[in-house]
Amino acid sequence: MKGFASAMALLSLVCVGPLLAAEGAGGIDDQTKSRVRSEIERYVAADIKLKGYFLLIDPRNDKTLRLIFDRVHDGVSADPKGYGACVDFKDKSGKVYDVDFFVFLGEEAAGVEQIVLHKVDGKPLPKPTEAGK
Length: 133
Prior knowledge:
seven-stranded antiparallel sheet, Nuclear Transport Factor 2, Chain: A, alpha+beta, disordered N terminus, 7 strands
């Protein structure tokens, strides 16, 4: 079992290493950034088509937010979860929600892996704690 854990740790370094190295070696290429933003836009558009709004649970009070898409930010970052980009939404009152999307890009397929409410009206939300999950 110890050998299996060592092999998995080595495999994770081999897989994640190029992702982090690409970010450190001058950033992410424009084609990858475009794929990430396109996947987010596709995901959001499909959700809005299905539900009429982009629905997101506010972790501060467990209320469902009915959001209107504004834009995907130009910046894309790399991290162990894949690629991340910020997306701006608004509610009917005009309050701005900055939502982080984490996207997996495969050779032929892509997908949104995680969505995190990051800021409300420019104010960062506290990061969730392990005890608070």
